[in-house]
Design a protein that fits this description.
Layout (H helix, E strand, L loop, with lengths): L15 H18 L1 H4 L2 H11 L1 H4 L3 H16 L4 H12 L18 H5 L4 H18 L4 H13 L3
Helix pairs in contact: 1-3, 3-5, 3-8, 5-6, 5-8, 5-9, 6-9
């Protein structure tokens, strides 16, 4: 990979992976500054993590966390109770095997949402990006749903 492309997600960005990380930090800054952006930050963060597997999903637990959270963000409208159940489940002792890391993780990247002009465009592009990443993980939807079921059925 060259310095103008992120080696994890393929985004055309100056500075490679560090430049891509800087774009995520810009998205986070928007979320900290405005609750309308914050409402979509979890979805953006989990999409980013599933495209940047090596630094964010190195362990089976972190992989399961971001894959199931991406599922929750898209299929359950980011229900806070489900996010909490995932976190509680993964804080316990769980026997997980990390799935095969995919080489293709979606066409859209954090670079695609960087230049949004308003909140409506931001929301639409974050949802498109997350859906694009989720679709790239189609072969792992079954395991994501299994893990999500385990999280929701775990003893509290």
């Amino acid at each position: 990979m060259n310095d103008g492309q992120c080696p994890e997600c393929g985004a055309a960005v100056s500075g490679g992976q560090a430049g891509c990380q800087a774009l995520l930090q810009e998205v986070a800054a928007r979320a900290y500054a405005d609750p309308r952006y914050a409402a979509y930050y979890n979805l953006a963060f989990d999409a980013y993590c599933m495209q940047h597997v090596e630094p964010y999903c190195h362990s089976a637990k972190s992989y399961a966390a971001h894959l199931t959270r991406l599922c929750c963000g898209l299929e359950y409208a980011g229900d806070p109770k489900i996010y909490a159940a995932i976190q509680q489940w993964l804080n316990g002792t769980v026997d997980l095997e990390k799935p095969t890391v995919l080489s293709f993780r979606g066409q859209l990247t954090v670079a695609d949402i960087r230049a949004t002009r308003d909140i409506e465009e931001h929301i639409r592009l974050v949802q498109d990006w997350a859906r694009n990443v989720w679709d790239a993980y189609a072969t792992q939807h079954e395991i994501a749903h299994h893990w999500l079921g385990a999280a929701l059925n775990a003893k509290r």
